[in-house]
Design brief:
Elements: H1 3-41, H2 44-63, H3 68-74, H4 81-104, H5 106-112, H6 117-134, H7 137-145, H8 149-172, H9 178-198, H10 209-232, H11 234-243, H12 247-260, H13 262-281, H14 286-321, H15 325-329, H16 333-358, H17 362-387, H18 390-400, H19 405-410, H20 419-443, H21 447-486
Helix pairs in contact: 1-8, 1-13, 1-21, 2-6, 2-10, 2-11, 2-12, 3-7, 3-10, 4-6, 5-6, 6-9, 8-9, 10-17, 12-16, 13-14, 13-16, 14-16, 14-20, 14-21, 16-18, 17-18, 20-21
Length: 487
């Protein structure tokens, strides 16, 4: 593989990760502030209905996408016009038919889940938003293949800003659950307009048999694994929404899951978004792939380990500082702690699953997902029936202990080892945890104690990483600073 090409991919991957982290840091602040305000303005039962409806839409998303977009990204050669038109046409046929069916069945779906009229309206609004989102696929694929993540993030920024601003404003005005519905429609329109301005693509219809056959040979097994993930996650949420009579308890599960995954959404999603196309570009060079995987493991742990541990330490003190917040959400804390362990283990396994997909080993990842899906449905429903809503987190924790499986699988194709990349972030996180616990233990759960704990933890962790890993982190942070200044 040409050294110049490898260096170009490396440069673009660093820029991509830095750009996405800068974007997500900003958007997470916006989303977390909005989420916090909404958890004050809206009741847990409203969030319970929202999570159920969102899970229904996610199901639709999986069945309306048969992996063609991922196949275009993974494709070794540059896709042609026929590839793009074939993907767009097949996807739009699936999306249009699916949306129409769900719109016609919306009343029945609402009746089945005991949704209010507002819940049914939310379902319909999210269906329309889903259709609008499907129109962005080809322009997004074009940018992703070019590793132009700087342009790709702009529509996402506009979408998140518009959604959160509209949701909070309408919730403040008393719209309740329908706040999410109107915000979803605004987000859908904003996203489509923005992506076509930044990545123009002339809409075209047509199906090439040879192109479809080639893309589907990769896309269908990949999407089969995604559908299993759907059965494992979103279908389970829908099932719980039916068997758990108190919607507030679904809200507790959603709250715990949402907050425990904040570090994943902030860092891991961005790393994976870059790593899949990058791994696809370097899949022929096993040594380069090994180095890329170990670098991914290092940076994932560098950000996610301290992020998760800090949230575990701070969640209760912060809730106690805010009037009325602890009493409202305290029942979700136990689930939050267990799901936080899941987040750490998922941060290690998810990039490796993406690497297997980039290598074209979609059948292997399908079997892996099959195992996780079986365990999910074999364990969680039983625990929920016996232990209540906390059974979800307990079962998820048990299943997360199998996160080591992708390590053994990826080692069949490259001599990857996670031990060295994990060592420094793990030690640094332990130091950070101790430094944060001391002020909270001595001062107590006060605003001053929380601020002091954050300053102490960030300072000591940063100093440790600077002393032990300066050469590894410097390129990313320099690019991150440059990206922030450009914004």
């Amino acid at each position: 593989m040409d050294e110049t090409y490898i260096q170009d991919v490396k440069k673009k991957s660093i820029i991509g990760v830095a750009t996405l982290i800068a974007r997500t840091f900003f958007l997470q602040i916006v989303s977390l502030i909005a989420m916090f305000i909404l958890t004050i303005l809206l009741s847990p039962s409203v969030f319970g209905i929202y999570y159920i409806v969102l899970a229904i839409i996610n199901i639709l998303n999986y069945f309306a996408d048969i992996g063609l977009a991922s196949a275009l990204i993974q494709k070794k050669d540059e896709p042609g016009s026929e590839d793009y038109k074939t993907t767009f046409t097949i996807q739009q046929l699936l999306v249009s038919v699916s949306v129409l069916i769900f719109l016609l069945l919306s009343e029945s779906i609402g009746s089945f889940f005991n949704l209010t009229n507002e819940g049914i309206f939310l379902l319909r609004a999210l269906l329309i938003s889903f259709f609008l989102s499907s129109l962005k696929t080809i322009p997004s694929v074009i940018l992703e293949r070019k590793l132009e993540f700087g342009r790709k993030v702009v529509p996402q920024i506009l979408e998140v800003l518009s959604f959160n601003i509209v949701t909070v404003f309408l919730a403040w005005r008393g719209f309740g659950l329908t706040s999410f519905a109107y915000a979803a429609l605004v987000r859908g329109v904003v996203g489509v307009v923005a992506i076509y301005i930044l990545s123009p693509w002339k809409l075209g219809f047509g199906i090439s048999r040879s192109s479809a056959r080639s893309l589907l040979s990769f896309g269908i097994p990949l999407q089969a694994g995604a559908i299993l993930a759907l059965v494992k996650d979103d279908l389970l949420t829908i099932y719980l929404g039916k068997v758990i009579p108190i919607k507030a308890e679904i809200g507790y599960i959603g709250w715990a899951k949402r907050w425990s995954e904040v570090p994943l959404r902030q860092f891991m999603d961005n790393i994976i978004a870059v790593s899949f196309p990058v791994y696809s570009r370097i899949q022929h060079n096993k040594e380069v792939l090994r180095k890329a995987l170990e670098k991914t493991t290092f940076f994932t742990a560098l950000f996610i380990f301290p992020g998760v541990v800090a949230m575990v330490i701070l969640i209760k003190p912060v809730a106690l500082v805010i009037p009325g917040y602890f009493s409202k959400w305290q029942f979700a804390f136990f689930s939050f702690y267990l799901l936080s362990v899941n987040a750490i283990l998922a941060s290690l396994s998810s990039p490796l699953v993406q690497a297997l997909n980039a290598l074209g080993k979609v059948k292997t990842t399908f079997i892996l997902m099959l195992v996780w899906t079986f365990l999910t449905w074999a364990i969680i429903p039983i625990l929920v029936s016996r232990l209540g809503f906390n059974g979800f987190a307990i079962g998820s924790f048990i299943i997360s202990l199998t996160a080591f499986l992708p390590i053994f699988l990826i080692r069949r194709y490259t001599p990857y080892s996670p031990i060295k990349p994990l060592l420094k972030p793990t030690i640094g996180t332990i130091i950070m945890a101790l430094s944060m616990s001391i002020p909270l233990a001595t001062i107590g759960s006060s605003l001053f104690g929380v601020i002091l704990a954050i300053i102490s933890g960030v300072t000591l962790y940063s100093l440790f990483i600077y002393k032990t890993s300066k050469a590894e982190v410097a390129p990313l942070f320099l690019q991150l600073i440059k990206t922030i200044k450009m914004r």
